[in-house]
Amino acid sequence: MSPSRSSNSLSLASLLTLSSLIPASWGMDCADILTNGVHFNLKELGGPHVVHWSETYPELGQTYNYNFTLDICNKLKWHKDGNKNTECTHGTWVCGMREEVDLSGINNNTVVTPIDIAGSYKSTGNGRTLDEKFTRLKDSKSNADSAKEGVRIELNGGRFPHEEKNGLDQRAIIEFVCDPERTGLEGEEKDDGEKEDSSEDSKRLTRRDGECEDSDKSLRFCGYKKETPKDKGVRTLRLEWRTKHACEKNAPPDSGSHWGFFTWFIIIFFLATAAYLIFGSWLNYNRYGARGWDLLPHGDTLRDIPYILKDFGRKVLNSTQGGGSRGGYSAV
Ligand SMILES: *[C@@H]1O[C@H](CO)[C@@H](O)[C@H](O)[C@H]1NC(C)=O
Ligand SMILES: *[C@@H]1O[C@H](CO)[C@@H](O)[C@H](O)[C@H]1NC(C)=O
């Protein structure tokens, strides 16, 4: 008895380990984001997408220009002539390229630094994983969010600097918000897209804190700040992605309601018929002392139903076979 039980728990344990290992090593399945029974398919939004942001420290005479690249369906690929100094670590899903510009003019150097924000580094680095988390916006604790339709995805695993144990942890939180009018690719900028025009730049400067950038693009930058879900803090890249793929049009509860109505209709019909027959029989019994067939309301009619149907069928048959073939009668 005890051996079989231990082997059962053993196989269960290995199953659990397997299932916990698979997502970590394969990453997230963008075609099937499941949260609280609701599925989202974000496959159409796959491939590398770029978002820009500038941060200026006037007192230091410094500006940081960021290009954030993300692929929600796969890890990012290195460019042809890429190297460790110009690309994020292999296994990165969300990468920040930081360009440090010295405004003072003393030093003309611009330094470019890759920052691993989210990814799976089981075999390629510090061992941290994507550890993706999904939240349906309607189930969100905050009132503002629960009014929206869509899904929030949290991607972890990044750290800067990557190899340093005491580096600052990084993560990306992308809010996919339902907008039936948008595919999600409006204003899209591919990995090696063209330069932004200056009107976009001026828009970016008018952005107020705590809001997403004022842009008509479907994918918008909302912040890159240190947040404190942990003591040490996690620098969090927040993005908003407006798209029809975040709409819950395929939610299951709707399809069931028609059958539910039909079932109720049948049940009520039967109950009503039964009540009519029972009450009618009771009346006949009491008033007229009826017995047997006579108990039923319209008992005569009910008794005749088989004959009426037969008659009706014969009439229909005759009329469809056409008036021409009178000889048809002989067969009956
Ligand atoms: C910085 O660049 C400007 C123009 O490109 C040049 O005139 C100047 O000599 C440079 N300064 C240094 C310190 O390299
Ligand atoms: C960021 O993107 C712009 C436009 O695509 C490009 O000109 C610039 O070199 C990029 N900066 C970095 C640090 O990759």
UniProtKB/TrEMBL annotation:
Q: Where is this region: Disordered?
A: 184-209
Q: Write out the entry's keywords from A to Z.
A: Autophagy, Cytoplasmic vesicle, Disulfide bond, Golgi apparatus, Membrane, Mitochondrion, Protein transport, Signal, Transmembrane, Transmembrane helix, Transport
Secretion signal, residue range per the UniProt entry: 1-27
Which compartments is it annotated to reside in? Cytoplasmic vesicle membrane; Golgi apparatus membrane; Mitochondrion membrane; Preautophagosomal structure membrane
List the Gene3D superfamilies hit by this protein, alphabetically: Mannose-6-phosphate receptor binding domain
Among the record's GO biological process terms, what is one? protein transport
Q: Where are the transmembrane segments?
A: 259-279
Which cellular component terms (GO) are annotated to the entry? Answer: cytoplasmic vesicle membrane; Golgi membrane; mitochondrial membrane; phagophore assembly site membrane
Where does the record place Basic and acidic residues bias?
A: 200-209
Q: How does it sit in the membrane?
A: Single-pass type I membrane protein; Single-pass membrane protein
Task: Identify the main location.
Answer: membrane
Indicate, by first and last residue, each region the UniProt record lists as having compositional bias (Acidic residues): 188-199
Q: Which family does it belong to?
A: Belongs to the ATG27 family.
Q: What is this protein called?
A: Autophagy-related protein 27
Organism listed in the record: Periconia macrospinosa
